[in-house]
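Annual report, structural modelling task.

Input specification for the iron/sulfur cluster complex:
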Amino acid sequence: MKNSLIKIMFFTEILKGMALTFRTLFKPAVTRRYPKVKVPAQPGFRGLHALAKDNTGRMKCVGCGLCGAYCPSQCIHIYTTEGEDHNKVVDRYEIDVVRCIFCGFCVEACPFGAITLSEHYEYSNYSRDAFYMNKEKLLGNWDKYFEGEKGKQYFKKFWRPLTEDFKGDPAQAMFSKIPGKEKR
Ligand code: SF4
Ligand code: SF4
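The model returned the following structure:
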């Protein structure tokens, strides 16, 4: 009773709080002023999808459907028709991004390096339609998020560790750490 009376009289709890405030006032901030200060995406970050283009600006996708077959969320929908030269023509390529779990299987499954996951993560919207990506939007994402060298480096770094990266820095090849799969 006496102790709590002293605390009330001398505002000890308030003084303790102020002391804590002053102690931390001049320390570097541990938070960021998002969205003004953004967190840079880490290498291999799996953000919004994009359909890759080749050097001539043509869509790389040939409509084989492997990405859709591997997708655990079944959110990739591809519609093709047969072209004049009996090759498939991709009429529609759509991803329901709301259902995507960003596992990256589509990227790993694609034998042509045609589907990618960009570093872009700020795409909240009030409309569900905005998250339904069609072919045109996905190709536009390539232009927006993979311009210049970024597009070229994307596949080398993260998605082909058993081929190109195995010849490079061994520390970068994740499979070299699996017992029995050491680099020879
Ligand atoms: S990241 Fe995974 S869930 Fe999303 S579209 Fe690709 S395979 Fe499907
Ligand atoms: S993105 Fe790749 S795996 Fe998917 S349909 Fe196109 S070529 Fe095939």
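The two ends are 76 Å apart (CA to CA).
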